[in-house]
Amino acid sequence: MSRLAKVFKRDKIEVKSEGYLNNLELRFPNEPARHKLLDVVGDLALIGYPIKARIIANRPGHSSNVEFAKKIKQYIKKNKYVKNVPVYDPTMPAVYSLEKIEKTLPHRHPFLFVDKIIDLTDTCIVGIKNVTFNEWFFLGHFPGNPVMPGVLQIEALAQTGGILCINAMPEGQYDTYFLKIDNCKFKQMVRPGDTMVLKMELTGPIRRGICEMRGTVYVGGKVATEADLVAQVVKRS
Predict the structure, then answer these.
(1) What are the Cα distances from residue 53, in Å, to 41, 63, 72, 144?
(2) Active-site residue 35, yes or no?
């Protein structure tokens, strides 16, 4: 024991009644368990969402805690957007008119794919795009079988999400740029006469101008397109 004390540069080292080789007095008889419990709480806080659950931790550690937190976050992201399908009432007043959208976004006709915004919170936005037969892309996509290109549906989501992100920024003029698109699925075709309900939700806090969002296009109350998008907000110089 004296040799260990010398190695650890301690005056004295002894085995306590709790069974630990230490020269520190524990403040509580179950202090190691409390320490591990706080580790679990802290690591699960990385999920970024409040959790109401009973957590049973068997021999926890930071590595396993973080992996567990990742799995919970993936589950939340996967199931969070199944509910709360937005309902569009054409008579309801717009939160953002087309004129206000043009003051926020740099896009202009024929590459502006959001007609109005009907709902806007700190973390969610719902926009509307009325698809008409005289859209320019129907001239070649496809003659006699008009279908809105999927990439333009994603662009409509991105423009809607851009308004959501810019709304969270301080006063000024901003642009948004794509960084990544993941988990993109096209589930039904969008044709002339359809009304696209564009829903974008932040999946986490905006950090350094980086916005992670979940986007869904609804047509007739059904999912037409969905994707995870990452964009960067840049202030205009």
Answers:
(1) 12, 20, 11, 55
(2) no
